[in-house]
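Work through what follows:
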Amino acid sequence: MRIGIIDSGINCTALKNQIQQKNFTNCPNHYTGDINGHGTMVAKTIENFSEREIEIISARIFDQTLAANTKTLISALEFLDTFDLSVIHMSLSVSTNIIHDQLRNICNKLLKKGIKIVTSYSNKFNTTALEQVNGVIVVRGQFFRNSSFYRFNDKLMQGIADNSPMLVQCGDKWYRFFDGNSKAAALFTSHLIHCYNDNTQKFDMELLKYHADKKIQEINTSLKRESDIQNSKELDEKFYCNANKVDNALTEVFKIQDKSILYKQDWLSAPLLLNAMKAIRIIHLLEDIFLCKFDLKHIYLEDFYNYEMFKQFVKRNLI
């Protein structure tokens, strides 16, 4: 499947799939990579949670500031119109109250071809002028802390997906926590991709709704599994057998000498100041300690709030 992404470009070293890019910013025309990291996190999230192989056509309209005008957005959509695409993803909002006629026209042209357009609400105002175009799917985030849960209203063409901060690679050895409506929209696009019917060459929107309802019904199963992990004596023993090595790894990453700090306070505050780069370093050290691979698709900022939540996170990955 071939999809288009309009964002800040993509750092190809972070993805496995084939990527073609074009630059629509004022940066030198030969550079199509991602200075900000936002576009790469969008593409990586879609890649991580899509069950089928995808080819990406990237139109870079943002630089470091993640700001562009309507004319640039229209040019990017016209560029993507030259490709045979199934989906156009835009983790962005259009802040004008009334949609530009030319923007409406190019969106309608793409929609009539059967291309699905997914965009996001503004994080600040939960609005976007693109919701005025019938057929464009607009997504907002909700704190599910589970990437598989989502909702879809086919009458309003509105989606909801998880917006909790999740660790995502956005460059060569560069990681950030990705959250908000942009992350939710990227997750929703991955769910939409699951519902493409190869026989009809169309998206099965009824299947999209069915999967959404089924996933929400699985919340109780997920909560029970989490409870079983918390109460597992076997996992507790496995963790505590290596607790000293784990604590040494944490003191190394956080550059502290007093281990008691790890147990007494939250990890987002000084002096620990947990961030994405510290989180990925901790994970790599844990993999060496426990001789296992952690699931990098499901790592959340919440897992590093404090020592107790971190311990539960480690136990989940030891199963």
Notes: The two ends are 33 Å apart (CA to CA). The longest strand covers residues 2-7. The longest helix spans residues 180-194. The chain has a mean pLDDT of 92.
